[in-house]
Specification:
The chain has 418 residues and is of the alpha/beta class. It has helices spanning 22-31, 48-59, 85-88, 96-105, 124-132, 163-173, 189-200, 232-245, 260-266, 307-315, 335-340, 370-382, 392-395, 402-408, and strands at residues 2-7, 12-17, 38-41, 63-67, 70-74, 82-83, 107-111, 136-140, 143-147, 155-157, 179-183, 204-206, 212-216, 225-226, 247-252, 272-276, 279-284, 292-295, 320-324, 344-348, 351-355, 364-366, 386-390, 413-417.
């Protein structure tokens, strides 16, 4: 098991090219199943979650290769529509495969998905949507078994703007005859990216990024090449790291309006931000002012995937903050570990009350899920002395090599084996 050894106190300076968005690449990989021609996806990011999705596609019979960052997926000769538990339980995104497999084969048998332990992660909204489209859904022995031989178009109102359910239902309906409306759809940039990819394959789909997505089914999709958007959460993580450590860092490739809520919150309080078309420059003294009340919400609100990183920033900000986690019910696992480092944080239900302290102290801490582990690394970057952060397997799900990227901008961080 590997962990990170961090010597805190360094300011951050330099440039970083942000890698492709994990949460765009995952549904796009699933959507490759809908097409019987070859597809090329550029700038493939080596996250363990994308690697898991490639394993799932290969287990169905897809031929996958990667050369110079270009991933080629040939799903012309799929021989299975079932995903076993050992693969499905690795990632949340295995649930997207349901929609893609129903679109392609009109049937699917997928084991329950895995994913970060940040709550119950139910799939009721996904399944309710499929049933609305006439899919017969059975849940038994740990599998979701679907018969979509009579699947039809229709109007679906999502109980909550679930990102995964929106994506699943988009994929299920692009090859279904008729016009399907998905209401109360999620509006994340990754949804828009999935729509753009499907349109490039010849799908007729509009409205992604608004609350209503309209899909007019087509007979067949054609092969294409596509370059998914860059990861706004990775960019947000490094923007917050700079606000905490102080310094001057420019992040390339990310679209500033994908991080609008974070930039609004941090600019002129924790740092100074210059946002251009596809780059963000952040300059900071390393003495952030507390952000006050922070509410995570669905896009375009403050992303839940940056809550843990913002909480780390708040622990060393001047003043008090109140961080409300409104999306997932159990996303404060990083708090006890931050307290070990000297943070002053109390959690009640879905709210973390943070009183900024002068400094954090290096300690041995353990990450329990992807973004919580990122927050512990950020805390280590500012803590006095050495911090070891266990749980590298969590961070590797969504960062290609966080230690290399942070070292590139001056952090003293190494990956060591246990
Ligand atoms: C996606 O998860 C992302 N994962 C998550 O990123 C992200 O935090 C989340 O969207 C919210 O933005 C991927 O895209 C692979 P949801 P997803 O369905 O689709 C409830 C990361 O760190 N819900 O929008 O699972 C659910 O419990 C990961 O990169 C139901 O109740 O999120 C949660 O409270 C973590 N029933 C809320 O909706 C359902 O059927 C939002 O979940 C589905 C969801």
């Amino acid at each position: 098991m590997s962990k990170f050894l961090i010597n805190g106190g360094k300011k951050l300076f330099g440039d970083l090219q942000i890698t492709a968005a994990k949460n765009a690449y995952l549904p796009i990989l699933a959507a490759c199943v809908l097409c019987e021609d070859k597809i090329t996806l550029h700038n493939y990011p080596y996250y363990s979650d994308t690697e898991s999705m490639c394993k799932i596609l290969s287990s169905l019979g897809a031929l996958i290769s990667c050369e110079n960052g270009d991933l080629t997926v040939d799903a012309s000769s799929l021989f299975s529509w079932g995903i076993k538990s050992e693969l499905a339980s690795q990632v949340r995104s295995s649930i997207f495969m349901l929609g893609a497999l129903l679109g392609r084969f009109k049937k699917a048998r997928v084991a329950y998905p895995g994913g970060c332990e940040i709550g119950a992660r139910p799939i009721d909204i996904h399944l309710a949507g499929f049933r609305k489209l006439g899919v017969v859904v059975e849940e038994k022995h740990g599998f979701i078994q679907c018969d979509a031989s009579n699947m039809h178009s229709g109007k679906i109102l999502l109980e909550f703007p679930s990102v995964g359910a929106t994506e699943s239902l988009m994929m299920a309906s692009v090859l279904t005859n008729g016009v399907t409306h998905i209401l109360n759809a999620a509006k994340e940039p990754e949804i828009v990216d999935l729509q753009n990819f499907l349109v490039k394959m010849g799908a007729k789909i509009w409205g992604a990024g608004t609350g209503e997505i309209i899909v007019e089914g087509v007979k067949k999709l054609k092969g294409c090449d596509y370059d998914p958007i860059k990861d706004r959460i990775i960019a947000g993580t490094y923007l917050i790291a700079t606000a905490m450590c102080g310094g001057d860092v420019t992040l390339y490739g990310v679209k500033p309006d994908h991080l609008g809520a974070l930039i609004d919150k941090l600019d002129k309080t924790a740092c100074n931000i210059e946002a251009k078309s596809d780059k963000i420059r952040v300059k900071a003294s390393g003495k952030p002012i507390a952000l006050g009340k922070i509410e995570t919400s669905v896009y375009p609100g403050l992303p839940t995937d940056l809550q843990a990183q913002i909480l780390a920033l708040s622990t060393i900000s001047e003043g008090s903050s109140m961080i409300c986690e409104n999306v997932f019910e159990s996303r404060f696992k990083h708090v006890p570990e931050l307290v070990k480092m000297g943070a002053d944080v109390h959690v009640k239900d879905r709210v973390a009350f943070v009183r900024g302290v002068k400094k954090l102290y290096g300690a041995s801490v353990t990450g329990m899920e992807l973004r919580g582990t990122a927050s512990l690394i950020l805390a280590g970057l500012v803590a006095e002395g050495y911090t070891t952060v266990s749980g590298a397997k969590h961070i590797d799900r969504g960062y290609a090599s966080i230690e290399k990227e942070l070292s590139l901008i001056g952090a003293d961080i190494k990956r060591v084996e246990d």
